[in-house]
Specification:
The complex is a heterodimer.
Chain A (H helix, E strand, L loop, with lengths): L3 E6 L3 H11 L7 E7 L20 H4 L6 H5 L2 E4 L3 E5 L4 E4 L4 E3 L2 E4 L3 E3 L12 E3 L3 H11 L4 E5 L3 H12 L3 E5 L12 H13 L2 E4 L4 E6 L5 E5 L4 E4 L1 E4 L3 E3 L2 H5 L10 E3 L10 E3 L4 E3 L2 E2 L3 H16 L13 E5 L2 E7 L9 E7 L4 E7 L6 E7 L5 H9 L34 E3 L4 E2 H9 L5 H8 L9 H14 L16 H10 L5 H8 L8 H13 L6 H4 L4 H5 L2 E2 L5 E3 L10 H13 L3 E4 L5 E6 L3 H11 L12 E6 L13 H12 L8 E6 L13 E6 L2 E6 L11 E7 L1 H18 L6 H6 L4 H9 L7 H13 L4 H6 L2 H4 L17 E4 L2 E4 L2 H12 L1
Parallel strand pairs in A: 1-2, 1-7, 2-3, 7-19, 9-16, 10-11, 10-16, 11-12, 18-20, 33-34, 34-35
Antiparallel strand pairs in A: 4-5, 5-6, 8-17, 13-14, 14-15, 20-21, 22-23, 23-26, 24-25, 25-26, 27-28, 29-30, 30-32, 31-32, 35-36, 36-37, 38-39
Chain B lengths: L6 E6 L9 E5 L2 E10 L2 E8 L14 E5 L2 E5 L6 E3 L15 E7 L2 E5 L2
Antiparallel strand pairs in B: 1-9, 2-3, 3-4, 4-8, 5-6, 6-7, 8-9
């Protein structure tokens, strides 16, 4: 049987989603798939485009998984576009002259930015905001500009304004309508949004109709408005809406809407049954859907119609949105303007905290029709579900938007009230039923749930709701979410941390007596040891604390499989003098240690016996070195590249910053090990984006990344803040690390901690940057205390004969462990295998 | 070798720190000695120092505590638990270590070993 040939015209977000849906089909082998991608890059995330200006690369934005086309056998024509369709012979012709036959053709050509026909609009300094190439042109243009204007105060316009603002331009927004985001928000919301955005340094001009763009006096151009006023600027970004790219369909004689758009039915089929259209170029029921979620639903409907055994239909889409514009929460649900006849509204306007909330309800007050939320959009998920599922409102609907005061009952309806069919994540089309099915399948953790269902992994708007569904379901199933540390403590690590801090508990005995049972174990003892160290920072070898330490912490070295230890002196930032390198070499030679360079830019010396540790460290300390804490659940290293001091490309002194950070955070005990790195430019030679905290130099300062991880489950770090000065960078790292130390579970790296955090990155930013918990100062103070009380554990140990006495294999003999045997390999020692040992012992015996 | 229960003195009682192990060598044999102290009671234990899973002589460096009422030591290498009274491995019934009587006698810690 010959394969059915599918051609997808356009590899944008929706075109690519179509390919993904198709690739997930069991019967995908029945299809030969070809796609044309006009841009030089395969599909990337246009929704996150502004992240490009805060440090994300084109690669970060890519939506195409490695090997996607190869693994699925899909063919892609890159930088080539379809220019004509021959519907009679069912072929398409491309700009490069390729003629390809199809059985089914999918038009996913998207849209283009609308530029109003203003004289002067074609100047070099007039740009649009849609592709990565556009962004490159904007970056380039910004270099010779002081002021930039965005024409259009809608959703995309405000995104574009953020981009100009981030590029350091004096930014203005010019809007034709009387308010910002005229489509999504009402007057009250628009006013609040305007005041918040102006507070960030962006000037807003409303009711301005640009008549002409002419040469400027103080700037490159001047915009002349219909009301006689004018505005000088060096750069103009048009963001006045989108228009469907439908010329291909039009030229082929497909049925079109009166104002453009390719007419499609519920299967996304055009007037030619073999041609489908999806995304922003498609017109369904007279409407164009300029959001990505409906586009994905169209892609699903089209794949189901072409390849599916059961058909799903596109039935329109809810255009509710929640987003963060320049750090301001904005959400719009359903009939935000109260256009429904006889609808009523409730609104809440808090000028002090700059929060505006409105709900629109039906005439009888029973159903929710729409809502606008500015400044605080937490209620979005719950309100959207109320509307989408046509659920009854509570008796006092205003309770949904009024602030909760102490003692008041929580507003809104619990997730229990949602039907299983309720869509929780509209980006990935995950219903409550899907989530329950995963929980029935044994999932009990938010992080796992998200990676398995994909819910909450695109825009993140539903993440809190996903967490609530999970908790409610687990509770219903009687699965107690047991956070108990172990049988000795009915508390989570976080709770124990708070107890230790608040009650000022200094010993494990006291903690156990007051809050635990039994004698403790190898789980709770090291955890308590770490918490006590994070809070009070007493020497871990103190008699009251020593019994809590794992052998690595107890002997301040890393135990290896044969019971010997490895020794790692600290080499901050990987910078070391020849004298110290020689000292390490001589010490390793003297004690016959195996040496290896670590991944963290230092030297590890293996094969030290217990009694040798203080002797080795005496020599290391004398040579000016200190403990590297390679044995601790604590800061390991701050890796760095050589930076601007030597490198042709470096823009900041990455080594200097790495040393500063490593010397600040050395010895800080934490739930698990912590690794940092600092790169001197965007080439990222220090691989900072796989670290718990990564710092990458920019021309203006430092970009800070958090919660990256290499290892078993690699996680790309999230961009946390951009262009920070040294002081702010350290402030944020202080707060981040201390918040992690206080709230993470035992042995939970920052990556997992982050994956399981309700509210995710936005929440963390709120806590650390906006200080939403009012904790910032306390976290910094706590970190300062740890920094001030730092001591080299090894230096204080070798100075104490009492402590040195414990470094002996036997209590009743000065002999060493005869079971430790080394053989030579590649000119260094290694542990002998069991067979080698018996051979050697026999040899000796004979 | 005249007496199966011959007590060997290994150190002063004051040399032991509660809940931290030490290793004694008696007739070439390595024995891990622990003094567990919690809630006002003190118990002394002796168990083979060799961790049967790694073959290394390290059990004296394991963390001690109790699990379901049994005093245990956790191997510092692969974290198996051994019952200090019986020598039984909690994770693997087929493994039992040898245990030794330990006592405090006139200020000395003594171990009964062949």
């Amino acid at each position: 049987m010959s394969k059915e040939k599918i051609i997808v015209v356009g590899n944008g977000m929706v075109g690519h989603k179509f390919l993904e849906f198709l690739s997930e089909r069991d019967n995908r082998d029945q299809f030969e798939v070809i796609t044309f991608c006009e841009e030089s890059r395969l599909a990337y995330d246009r929704v996150q485009l502004s992240a490009y200006f805060s440090g994300k690369t084109a690669e970060d934005l890519s939506l195409v998984e490695d090997g996607f086309f190869e693994n699925n056998g899909f063919k892609v024509y890159l930088e080539d576009k379809v220019v004509s369709i021959d519907r009679d012979n069912k072929t398409v012709t491309s700009a490069n002259g390729e003629v390809v036959a199809y059985d089914k053709l999918i038009l996913a050509t998207g849209s283009f930015p609308f530029v109003p026909p203003i004289p002067g609009k074609d100047r070099d300094e007039c740009l649009v905001y849609r592709t990565i190439e556009d962004l490159e042109a904007i970056t380039h243009g910004a270099k010779t500009s002081k002021r930039g204007v965005v024409v259009g105060g809608g959703l995309l316009g405000l995104e574009a304004a953020k981009a100009l603002h981030d590029l350091g331009l004096e930014t203005h927004v010019v809007e034709f309508a009387p308010r910002l985001m005229a489509v999504q928000v009402d007057d009250g919301g628009g006013a609040m949004l305007r005041s918040k955005i102006e507070a960030l340094g962006v000037t807003v001009h409303t009711e301005k109709n640009t008549k002409e763009i002419v040469n400027g006096d103080s700037s490159k151009m001047r915009m002349e408005f219909a009301d006689g006023e004018s505005l000088e600027t060096d750069l103009i970004l048009f963001s006045a809406g989108i228009r469907p790219r439908d010329e291909l369909a039009r030229d082929s004689g497909l049925e079109m809407g009166p104002r453009g758009g390719i007419t499609v039915n519920n299967n996304c089929q055009t007037s030619d049954p073999d041609i489908y259209s999806i995304g922003e170029c498609a017109l369904w029921d007279g409407r164009i859907f300029g959001l990505v979620a409906p586009g994905y639903q169209m892609a699903k409907a089209a794949v189901d119609a072409i390849a599916g055994d059961k058909e799903s239909e596109f039935a329109g889409a809810d255009m509710s949105t929640k987003l963060k514009l320049m750090g301001v929460d904005v959400a719009s649900i359903g009939d935000a303007h109260g256009n429904t006849p006889n609808s009523k509204s409730y609104s809440y306007n808090d000028e002090h905290n700059e929060v505006y909330k409105k709900i629109v309800v039906s005439e009888d007050g029973k159903k929710l029709l729409g809502s606008v939320l500015i400044g605080d959009a937490e209620a979005y998920g719950g309100l959207l579900q109320l509307m989408l599922n046509d659920m009854d409102l509570p008796e006092h609907p205003d309770s949904l938007i009024l602030p909760q005061r102490e003692g008041g009952a929580p507003a809104g309806l619990g997730v229990d009230a949602l039907p299983d069919t309720a869509t929780i994540c509209s980006c990935n089309n995950v219903t409550k039923g899907d989530i329950i099915a995963s929980i029935d399948g044994g999932i009990t953790e938010l992080g796992e749930l998200k990676s398995c269902t994909k819910a909450g992994t695109s825009c993140g708007g539903c993440a809190a709701l996903v967490g609530q569904v999970l908790n409610a379901e687990l509770e219903k199933k009687g699965i107690e979410v047991n956070n108990d540390l172990c049988e000795h403590f009915a508390h989570s690590r976080q709770e124990l941390f708070d107890i230790v801090r608040v009650e000022e508990i200094k010993t494990f005995e006291e903690l156990l007596a007051k809050h635990g049972t039994g004698k403790g174990c190898d789980i709770c003892k090291p955890t308590a040891g770490s918490i006590l160290a994070s809070c009070w920072n007493d020497h871990i070898m103190e008699p009251s604390l020593a019994g809590l330490q794992d052998t690595n912490d107890y002997y301040m070295a890393n135990m290896q499989k044969d019971g010997t230890y490895s020794v790692v002196p600290r080499i901050p930032g990987g910078e070391i003098t020849p004298e110290k390198l020689i000292a390490i070499g001589q010490i390793a030679q003297k004690y016959d240690l195996y040496t290896k360079i670590t991944g963290g830019q230092r030297v590890d010396m293996f094969g030290a016996k217990v009694h040798e540790l203080p002797l080795i460290w005496k020599e290391l300390v004398d040579a000016g070195m200190e403990s590297g804490h390679a044995y601790g659940k604590s800061l390991r290293t701050v890796k760095s590249c050589v930076g601007s001091t030597w490198c042709r490309y470096g823009v900041q002194d990455s080594v200097g910053m790495a040393i500063k950070l490593e010397e600040r955070y050395r010895g800080v005990r934490s739930p698990h090990k912590i690794k940092l790195a600092v790169s001197g430019c965007t080439r990222e030679c220090a691989e900072a984006q796989c670290k718990d905290v990564g710092v990458i130099a920019t021309e203006h300062g430092w970009n800070m990344y958090v919660a990256g991880n290499g290892g078993m489950k690699p996680r790309h770090a999230d961009l946390f803040a951009s262009d920070l000065d040294d002081e702010t960078l350290i402030k944020y790292i202080d707060r981040f690390m201390m918040f992690y130390v206080r709230t993470a579970d035992r042995l939970q790296r920052t990556a997992t901690w982050m994956n399981n955090m309700e509210g995710g990155l936005d929440y963390l930013k709120d806590v650390i940057i906006n200080d939403s918990l009012n904790l910032g100062e306390e976290l910094e103070k706590q970190m300062d205390h740890l920094v001030d009380t730092y001591q080299c554990e090894w230096k204080s140990t070798i100075e104490s004969p009492e402590k040195v006495k414990r470094f002996n294999h036997f209590i009743n003999s000065d002999e060493t462990d005869s079971n430790v045997v080394f053989v030579k390999e590649r000119a260094q020692i290694r542990p002998a295998t069991t067979k080698e040992k018996s051979d050697l012992i026999e040899t000796v015996a004979v | 070798m005249s007496n199966n229960n011959q007590w060997t003195s290994i150190c002063d009682a004051s040399d032991l720190i509660s809940n931290i192990g030490v290793c004694a060598q008696i007739n070439g044999k390595q024995i891990a000695i622990f003094q567990l102290e919690a809630n006002g009671t003190t118990s002394l234990y002796g168990i083979d120092n060799q961790d049967p899973f790694s073959g290394s002589n390290v059990l004296s460096r394991g963390l001690v505590g109790d699990l379901k009422g049994h005093d245990v030591v956790a191997s510092p290498i692969y974290k198996q638990h051994f019952d200090l009274s019986t020598g039984k491995c909690l994770e693997d019934d087929s493994v039992t270590l040898k245990v030794y009587s330990v006592r405090s006698n006139e200020g000395k810690i003594e171990v009964a070993a062949q």
